[in-house]
Amino acid sequence: MSTVAVTDDTFDAEVKNSDIPVVVDFWAEWCGPCKQIGPALEELSTEMEGKIKVAKVDVDQNPNTAAALGVRGIPALFIFKDGQVISNRAGAAPKAALKGWIEDSI
Fold it and tell me: Which residues are catalytic?
């Protein structure tokens, strides 16, 4: 499964109402560190298929959800489980660190 593009309008349906935990990546096209972690998140979405969903929210096109969660810098990553935030982190990290954070959180 590849990452899912989520908008302000689809956030509740794709993230809060998901049957499995969702890693939400708040990013923007102009953000260098966001582009660095993109491929790692794509790989993790495939490797951990069925265990997690990876959703990407472009903060430039969808500012409301980012503002509601208090996102001040990007990349910002949140893990939602049963509609609630269970963990979050900011900044880029290597794939192994991201995977460890996800596994420890879910």
Answer: 31, 34
